[in-house]
């Protein structure tokens, strides 16, 4: 498995402190080691215990607390960090760092680290736009500090304008793409399908499945961070649009088929994580089906197997499928690998409650065309995606 990266998260005192919890949770799920330093003011908004529970590490606040180890903490965390993220960053911390002030654990660690430091500011609009603050930001940028710019919106104080902390998913994604510096997919085109498709019954009803799209999105994001040019074809999912890739939204099997066919030839790697509806109603009713009979019988007919279709078209592409199975996991997955002319198949047992469909974690076996069966223990979908590309790139 790839080396664990360490993020030191600095939390400063603003109303957006609670959102830092969400960022930390996302970084942990992505498999990163997280240490938290809070300012005294931040602890007035949210207790260090919440940060300790989520980061699974002691939270550091006081510079002069009894040491718990023979390390000078601001130096040891400064050295440990692969990246420092200050979220939320108040105008106070920006002002201090821009002017070389180091008077607490967080600012001393920022001064001492050689790792990249990223600020995600959040403040009242007038404070944020104050020329002194803007001048500090300019100065920090000149020194190489990075910023995840705040959004415009309605702020906690009731004002509307810029100063709203950037979206927490965007913050965690940017951090991940900065620390995860393997660019082994640079120059490659990766096509990913994700989520369910729907099969309409009448103008108001459709059938679909439980796929959340989380696995496919994690794969697309991992490919992007490794330098690939990514096209994501997504069924209806409740996930924010990821940055840095082309996203094609579709609903039905035939729309996914069309989008996949259009993008297949130019792709180097194609990963079909979508849960495509196998059947559609034989007769779509243009009118809403009324509640007249006791029983309702809908006849279904087979729809296109998209993966099999592109398996037949395959030239030099690496083709990866998924197999969602409730029994005979390996045997069924092997048979799909052969039938659909795949190079790899990711097999997951959908009967487990805490992995697979709609969960944040997964536990899979990756079967290779050369006969290898690699068992991946339970881990975040992002880490599964990382392992998959490591295998495709023969990194393990
Ligand atoms: N797949 C596809 N088109 C379909 C059905 C499945 O492209 N109509 C793809 C999925 O994206 C997945 C793989 O085929 O990568 C296997 O999907 P799965 O639902 O596990 O298998 P099926 O082929 O549908 O077979 P079964 O439902 O009988 O297990």
TrEMBL record:
Gene3D superfamilies: CoaB-like, Flavin prenyltransferase-like
EC number, UniProt record: 4.1.1.36, 6.3.2.5
Cofactor, free-text remark: Binds 1 FMN per subunit.
Catalytic activity: N-[(R)-4-phosphopantothenoyl]-L-cysteine + H(+) = (R)-4'-phosphopantetheine + CO2; (R)-4'-phosphopantothenate + L-cysteine + CTP = N-[(R)-4-phosphopantothenoyl]-L-cysteine + CMP + diphosphate + H(+)
GO molecular function: FMN binding; metal ion binding; phosphopantothenate--cysteine ligase activity; phosphopantothenoylcysteine decarboxylase activity
Positions of region (Phosphopantothenate--cysteine ligase): 190-396
Positions of CTP binding: 278, 288, 322, 336, 340
Domain of life: Bacteria
HAMAP family documented for this protein: CoaBC
Name of the protein: Coenzyme A biosynthesis bifunctional protein CoaBC
């Amino acid at each position: 498995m790839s080396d664990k990266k360490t993020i030191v998260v600095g939390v400063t005192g603003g109303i957006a402190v609670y959102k830092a919890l969400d960022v930390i949770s996302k970084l942990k799920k992505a498999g990163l080691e997280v240490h938290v330093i809070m300012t005294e003011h931040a602890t007035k908004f949210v207790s260090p215990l919440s940060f300790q529970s989520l980061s699974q590490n002691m939270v550091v606040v006081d510079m002069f607390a009894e040491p718990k180890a023979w390390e000078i903490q601001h130096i040891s965390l400064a050295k440990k960090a692969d990246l420092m993220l200050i979220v939320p960053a108040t105008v106070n911390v920006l002002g201090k760092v821009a002017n070389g002030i180091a008077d607490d654990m967080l600012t001393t660690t920022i001064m001492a680290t050689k790792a990249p430091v990223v600020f995600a500011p959040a403040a009242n609009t007038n404070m944020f736009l104050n020329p002194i603050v803007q001048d500090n930001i300019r100065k920090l940028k000149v020194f190489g500090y990075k910023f995840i710019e705040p959004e415009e919106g309605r702020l906690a104080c009731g004002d509307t304008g810029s100063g709203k902390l950037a979206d927490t998913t965007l913050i965690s994604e940017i951090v991940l793409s900065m620390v995860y510096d393997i660019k082994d997919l640079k120059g490659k085109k990766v096509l990913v399908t994700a989520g369910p498709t729907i099969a309409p019954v009448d103008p108001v009803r459709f059938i679909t499945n439980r796929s959340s799209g989380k696995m496919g999105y994690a794969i697309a994001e991992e490919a992007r961070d490794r330098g690939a040019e990514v096209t994501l074809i997504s069924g209806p999912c409740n996930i924010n649009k990821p940055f840095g890739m082309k996203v094609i939204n579709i609903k039905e099997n035939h729309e996914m088929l069309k989008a996949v066919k259009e993008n297949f030839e130019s792709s180097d790697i194609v990963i079909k994580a979508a849960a495509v509806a196998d059947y559609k109603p034989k007769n779509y009713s243009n009118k809403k089906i009324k509640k007249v009979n006791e029983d309702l019988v809908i006849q279904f007919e087979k729809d296109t197997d998209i993966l099999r279709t592109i398996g037949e078209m395959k030239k030099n592409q690496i083709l990866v499928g998924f197999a969602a199975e409730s029994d005979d996991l390996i045997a069924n997955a092997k048979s799909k690998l052969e039938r659909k002319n795949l190079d790899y198949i990711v097999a997951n047992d959908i009967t487990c409650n805490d992995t697979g469909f709609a969960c944040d974690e997964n536990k899979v076996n990756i079967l290779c065309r050369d006969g290898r069966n690699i068992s991946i223990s339970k881990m975040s979908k992002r880490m599964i995606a990382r392992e998959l590309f490591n295998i495709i790139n023969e990194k393990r």
